Predict the structure.
Amino acid sequence: MNKKRFPVRLNIRNNVIDMTHGSGGRAMAQLIEELFVKHLDNDLLRQANDQAAFNVPGGRMVMSTDGHVISPLFFPGGDIGSLSVHGTINDVAMSGARPLYLSAGFILEEGFPLSELEKIVASMAEASATAGVPVVTGDTKVVEKGKGDGIFITTTGVGMVPEGVQISGDRALPGDAILISGTIGDHGVAIMSSRENLEFETSIQSDSAALHTLVADMVTAVPDIHCLRDPTRGGLATTLNELAQQSSVGMILDENRIPVNPSVTAACELLGLDPLYVANEGKLVCICAREYSQSLLSIMQAHPLGHNAAVIGEVTDDPNGFVQMQTRFGGSRIVDWLSGEQLPRIC
Amino acid sequence: MKYIDEFRRRDLARQLSSAIKKTVDPEKHYNLMEFCGGHTHAIFRYGVQKLMPDNVSYIHGPGCPVCVLPVGRIDNALQLVNEHDVTLCTYGDLMRVPASGLNSLLRAKARGADIRMVYSAMDALNIARENPEKEVVFFAIGFETTTPPTALIIKQAQAEQIKNFTVFCNHVLTPPAMRSILGEPENSGQDRIVIDGFLGPSHVSTIIGSRPYEVFAEQFYKPIVIAGFEPLDVMQASLMLIRQINEGRHDVENEYTRAVSRNGNRKAQALVAEVLELRPEFEWRGLGMVPKSALKIRSEYAEFDAEKHFNMPPVHSSDVKGCECPQILRGVKKPTDCQLFGTICTPENPMGACMVSSEGACAAYWTYGRLS
């Protein structure tokens, strides 16, 4: 592209998004070139087509899409940019696939500072480079002030499933082991700690991370993993209920074995929330035949994103799909779906 | 967590469980009403019922402030946002409480009403300070625990001469509710479910002390044990109640000594008395009109009283047809006795208020109790 088309460079420090940035004209071209391509640069993106064309090996391909509308945009341990990369890589990886490429659609609100946009795009670029999964095509739209919330990002990812891997939420069998890759609730608490009306001091960082290398190690060691899922919104409890329902099985958990960061426990205590229902962005739940559980656990614990991994329960024969838990206290209870939003209790 | 983990110890739970099993009379059935939602929550979340002998049952009481707020008061609040365009601030779990016509604060918010969830009364006052052009109303609810902060912000608002702030006061009192339950014919007639004793309020008692319950123990011959909200508190207090029942005693005992004294928090009591006064009567969801059971803002602070400022009419709306909340709150019926339970009334679509709060009897039953 000829840089002389834009004799005056985009003033990222002081300017904001206006309607011309979404009009398809020169201002949009300049935004794409001087902000998006500058950071996300790669061969496919630089071709500046409306699509990216690439060769794929034969086999099963997966595709997944995820919209990101998080508030606040920046939070301890990440931001909407890195999250939009990690989230979709994880959705692709939960099929056991190796993620190959991403696309990104931006909906920007008129008045959004370019400096913040650049921070977000730079963070996406870093997350994508670290993961080795490039953003190869994208789209930008601008909505009038008041019709958006600063920035929304939708990312889509494609990936290839290794031969012999057949992971699906309906494959859990009675007797299978249930594993989690690490502590639960970190992301949700980090987000809450930085919300406008609820600032409290905590050292908790979001666990936002791309899990595909962990998944690759796991499927290499045990190709016959039955289910993988990342417990995002609704937390571990909701994800396990989804899997139990899809597979028409029950589950029994041991609360003692579920890893929770002490600061997360404390924050949840304070806010009247249950960590089982708090969101994660860098954790996965794995269900596999019991005989593979220990070898899989060692593989997970050897990976930096799985060193707190644990076997937390087992799949039972229960057509009702109840998820039950032996409580740390010594009793037992049902762990149900999250209803509505988790609202803090009054007393 | 220090001061919390100690009250959730598994080994102590096991010891208490066997002590209770040894203490109960196998010929007897013990019906214990845990007064507060916090107790109900602890019982289900930690699986306390599983540790109790089969002949000890918990009856979930009316101590969930969200559950007992009548439909009419939420209709009143909705009227405020719809007709006066106010910014309404309230505590989180009130958002989903059903109003008339399948409405709720959450649904009104979705249609554009300015309704904010706050974590403390002070947050509401801050919103008023920061938005002087907006009329801000704090929808105050709760038992004696949440009342002192409301009194405090009213005083603060007066001291700062804040002109765009009022409080819609719905604070209710625990002892009149207890009296209302004990005085019901269902509890003395032939088909009664006998409440043999009460696990008394935890946080509420830190404010009012244990003394106000003494009259009930004397007049109604029911033992009361003030109990904390941790699972070991609930178990220890249950053991104390069972001992009293076995011995035919009906005293007020205090298990929650680490926080509750006989006289309570005098400073908080004085503050509340300075700003708020008794209403002649107040409507409770589930209990109907209960005399002297709620507080209103004193005339000295009338300028901060939303009811006066907006000339709010008393609205009486009946609860959803077929809803057994009234009987469930009194302990006369179980959630599963209600036709609506689990059919059209679920946590996703609550009809009665007992399904709304996670500590409401029906929601807790739905979430944790369906197997037992």
